[in-house]
Amino acid sequence: MRITDVRGYALSSPIVPPQSRSFYGGHRRLLKRDVVLVTVETADGEIGFAPAGASSSAMREYFEGDSQTTFADLVEAEVANVLEGETLEDVEDAHELIDATGLPERVRHEATSAIDVALYDLRGKRAGAPICELLCAEYDTEPDDTLAMYASAGMYMEPEGYAKQAQIVDDLDFFGYKYRPGIGPQEDRRTIELLAETVDQTEVMIDAHTWWKLDDDVYNVSTREDIVTHAGEHDVFWVEEPVSPDDYEGYLNLADRGVALAGGESEPSPTGLVELAETGGIKFLQGDVRHHRGYTGCSKAITYCLGREVEFVPHNFGTWLGLIANAHLVAAAPEVRLLEYPIFENDPALNHPEDPGMYPFDLAFDIIQETIEVKNGTLSVPEGPGLGITVNLDVIDEYPPTDGAWTEFIYDE
Questions:
Q1: Is 153 exposed, middle or buried (0-12, 13-18, 19+ CB in 10 A)?
Q2: What percent of the chain has pLDDT over 90?
């Protein structure tokens, strides 16, 4: 296919009024959510779509002082410059062209991820088949019709707040309930105990990234060991990122505490994903088509996991477009069975008298025209060609980008 136009659209979904969530030693301000929508157009007028994983807070890792608008500009400059006018015989041809730009590693992988997904969307549309069928042909598998999901919510509440939210998730029959602790070691332990008493069938998962963002004297090594051990004693399904992403020794130290560990979303590349898995410190490897060079890059990590005691479970914390992109991977990849479903306020796919959403993120739903189907905690993968959904291009005007980080961690002095 010959590429004629590559675009990146920076979008912001404001949180009005801004929300503040207290954790132990500070508070987190939630201001907005940022999205970059990437489009790739061919000479015959077909358009492939992709969500980009970049956000304003993440972009500071790539460009000092810049925001997600910078990433959209980069897509329309450096990335477009090497792709437009090129005839691509294979998706990996685009990888090689982007790698040759000399862009910083992390942003190069982010850009490659978006282009990879958009090109698969185009391939599916040309073939009249959903992406998962294309991937099944590559993996020699049969597609799953419906996917089990765990609900991702629970951000810095009183233990009783977590329990109430977990009960709703349990009512909705999700496989699991994942929450963010960090309200103090004693209250974190009490939350674990309360959740064990509250849920019936739903597994409990802990996303502990706040622990290593606080000072070492708050969640030091012994405290983390104690809480992770406590989690194992109360049948927690996994503890995610209990140490900083590059602390492989820390993962290994906690690996035998009676509970599985998860990680990988912060790894900058597919190679990094495999290197983390190779340590033996985790049981669940969290790659993401929006971060780890798309379907092509994630396949390397998935292949590594085959037949080993580590399971690939995609990270997904964004819009329904990102959810569907990762869902096609789960539907096709061998030995991959679970998908992350972030719950935001007023989710139109959930039927419950109480709202378990974390905070408003209207763009998450508005970015596609369809309402996805969630039934008994499972997702039906769209059967249409490519991604199988219709991107709502009205969001480009309705959600203009705003400067600054989407969230702030403010620590007590």
A1: buried
A2: 88
